[in-house]
Amino acid sequence: MPRGRYSLFDPHDHTPFAQEHFQCAPGPSGWRYVSRVTTPSGEPSGSVDLALDDLGRPIRLELHAGGWQVRGAALDGVTWVRTDPTGSHATEGNVRAHAFTGTSPAFLIATTRLLRLTPSTSATRVRLVALTDPVLAPRTVDQSWALVNSEAHATDNGPLTVDEYQVTALDTGERHTVHIAGDVVLAAPGIELEDLESPPSVFR
Predict the structure, then answer these.
(1) Spatial contact of 103 and 9, defined as CB atoms under 8 Å apart
(2) Which domain holds residue 86?
(3) How many structural domains compose the chain?
(4) How confident is the model at residue 133, as a pLDDT?
(5) Which of 72, 91, 100, 103 could form a disulfide with 80 if both were Cys (CB 3.0 to 4.6 A apart)?
(6) Strands (DSSP E) along 39-136, which ranges?
(7) How is the chain split among helix, strand and coil, in percent rounded to 5?
(8) 30: in domain
(9) Which value, in Å, is the radius of gyration of the alpha carbons in the chain?
């Protein structure tokens, strides 16, 4: 069960805005990721709880940030309920999308589990509902994902396969690279793996 810490920062000016302390693991029905998010000074600022089924679909999502809360799942596309900090107003949403995305590295892993790309697969288009800090407002985004390289690296615990993905935002054409090993993000825009206590899980 990998556990560790990510630093989250603005990918443009590299201003740090959060630390995400996480643990994750595959299970008999899929994969689960839980984390607590703190400010750079250590104050609690939110949490992530994401469970995927064996096909990579979100069967349960609970996000907290800035007093806001979102609960969602894959249902007729994706469906969610967003609650304001006072708890007095809740709004429901539904979009014909494949899954969720957001600030947490968990969503990058989730997208790769959903797409199951191989280096021979052509770029695949995916529609996601983005829920980003600080208010978790939903926004539908279209992306293209391609697995451009998969390389095994020798480690003390045996070979570690690192996958390199090219992700393109279809509305702007902006392109970036994501490096993932198992269920851990090694590097991505705005994300840096600071600490890892055990090796990434290997998906079957």
Answers:
(1) no
(2) 3-198
(3) 1
(4) 87
(5) 72
(6) 44-53, 58-65, 68-74, 78-83, 90-95, 99-102, 124-132
(7) 5, 60, 35
(8) yes
(9) 16
Which tokens sit at 60?
């349960």
Look up residue 77 and give its DSSP letter.
S
Amino acid at 93: G
Residue given tokens 């090694």 in the structure block: 186
User: What is the rounded distance in angstroms from the CA atom of residue 101 to the CA atom of residue 108?
Assistant: 7
Helices (H) and strands (E) in the chain, counts: 1, 15
Residue 204 lies in a domain: no
- pLDDT at res. 161: 93
- The answer to whether the Cα torsion of 58, 51, 114, 147 is positive or negative is positive
Segment 51-84, tens digit of pLDDT: 999 999 999 999 999 999 999 999 999 999 999 9
Assigned domain for 98 exists: yes
For residue 164, is pLDDT > 90? Answer: yes
Residue 46 CA to residue 103 CA, distance in Å, equals: 11
Residues 6+ apart with CB under 8 A from 158: none
The reply to whether 190 falls in a domain is yes
Please state the length of the chain.
204
Q: Do the Cβ atoms of 174 and 152 come closer than 8 Å?
A: no
